[in-house]
Design goal:
The protein is an alpha/beta fold. The protein folds into 2 domains: 124 residues, Enolase-like, domain 1, CATH 3.30.390.10; 234 residues, Enolase-like C-terminal domain (TIM Barrel, Alpha-Beta Barrel), CATH 3.20.20.120. It has 12 helices and 21 strands. The longest helix is centred in the middle third of the chain and has 19 residues. Bound molecules: magnesium ion (MG).
Length: 376
């Protein structure tokens, strides 16, 4: 199998729709109804085929043509080689097809039990800015959490930081608190509640929100403010003094180059580098390192759709993997129906590669419309 050569690469942006329009976070406007994953297929000279998310350009793709599987994939430990990371998800999928194994079995060999990964509903955006009444606003987000529960979720991430930009500071803080309490009340005590401020707070506002919601058992606070070791030290001391167990999560987007040092030092409990920009193979190596530091792994991928599935497979290679971020969407051209959400977990199909099915006629229409196709 390692002698097979890549003879065709095709790319297209597919169109997907979320079940509900996603509103603002603390620093951006509406995220909307649609997702547009860039999907790439690779085909070998013996007709083997893999596909996955990739932003590889046409000229980069041309350089991959003619390479053998052995040149692009290292077998022990299993990793996509450095120069081929821009196309690594299609490669992992191809290796899965060639070996008839799901990617989760490639990253760590499992017995035949059903494979699952814990996940959270990431859809609770700031969707209430049109409402003037805080009670109505809190009720709206609590109803959205209910929709997630009805779909099998038991963990929920709430966007906060309304007072950073969208609302007056004190009104925004008050509404954030009311939203958190309404969601907690709706999802019950056994559910997991996560917060994400997208750097819209400062240290004092972070303490305020954690003090005001101490009874609501916030599992993690994500991007409270731009990461800063002095501020995180202060926050950690304060939380310790007040017996607040909330974890500090950070690292998506333009993270500090010192983020991992601060994670090793115990200031950051959950690292959230993006699954696409950091990459699957690098995440496997990083996850082992984080395991050694007793730091949790929870890759970001919001808006990428494909990350729902890729992150679930990554879980098998990292002991302290915390959650898959679940950004539900239906994408025309990809059949993901073998994945299910049940009792707070992604049920991952025991199928080769990433276990998704590409509907080739729809994909080829999209290639003709907005993509490219290169052949040896
Ligand atoms: Mg975030």
């Amino acid at each position: 199998m390692f002698e097979q050569k890549i003879v065709r690469i095709e790319q297209a942006n597919l169109l997907g729709e979320r079940p509900r329009k996603a509103g603002c976070n603390s620093r951006l406007g509406e995220h909307g109804l649609y997702v547009r994953p860039s999907i790439v297929t690779i085909t070998t000279d013996q007709g083997a085929f893999g596909f996955g998310a990739s932003r590889i350009s046409q000229s980069e793709a041309e350089k991959v043509l003619g390479k053998s599987v052995g040149e692009i994939f290292q077998n022990d430990p299993k990793r996509v080689r450095d120069g081929f990371r821009p196309i690594e998800f299609p490669i992992w999928d191809l290796i899965g097809q060639l070996t008839s194994k799901p990617v989760y079995s490639l990253v760590r060999s499992n017995h035949d039990e059903e494979f699952t990964a814990p996940c959270y509903d990431t859809s609770l955006y700031i969707d209430d800015l049109h409402l003037t009444d805080h009670y109505e606003a809190a009720d709206l987000i609590a109803q959205q959490a209910q929709q997630g529960m009805d779909k099998g979720h038991t963990a929920f991430k709430i966007k906060i930081g309304r007072g950073a930009m969208h609302m007056d500071l004190s009104a925004g803080m008050q509404r954030d608190i009311m939203v958190i309490k309404a969601v907690r009340q709706n999802v019950g005590q056994s559910a997991t509640v996560l917060l994400d401020a997208n750097n819209g707070y400062n240290l004092n506002l972070t303490k305020t929100i954690l003090a005001e919601t101490a009874d609501d058992k916030i599992h993690w606070i994500e991007e409270a403010f731009h990461e800063d070791n002095r501020l995180y030290e202060n926050l950690k001391d304060w939380m310790h003094k007040h017996s607040i167990q909330t974890l500090v999560a950070d690292g998506e987007g333009e993270a500090s180059i010192k983020l991992l040092d601060w994670a090793e030092a115990g200031l950051i409990d959950v690292v959230q580098y993006d699954i696409f920009s950091y990459g699957f193979s690098r995440w496997l190596d990083l996850g082992h390192k984080l395991d050694g530091w007793n730091v949790y792994t929870a890759p970001h991928h919001y808006g990428g759709y494909y990350g729902n599935f890729a992150s679930a497979h990554l879980k098998n290679g990292i002991r302290n993997f915390k959650f898959v971020e679940w950004d539900a969407a239906t994408v025309s051209g990809i059949d993901d129906s073998s994945y299910k959400i049940q009792n707070g977990h992604v049920l991952v199909p025991n199928r080769p590669g990433f276990g998704l099915i590409l509907e080739k006629s729809i994909f080829h229409q999209a290639v003709a419309k907005n993509g490219f196709s290169v052949e040896l």
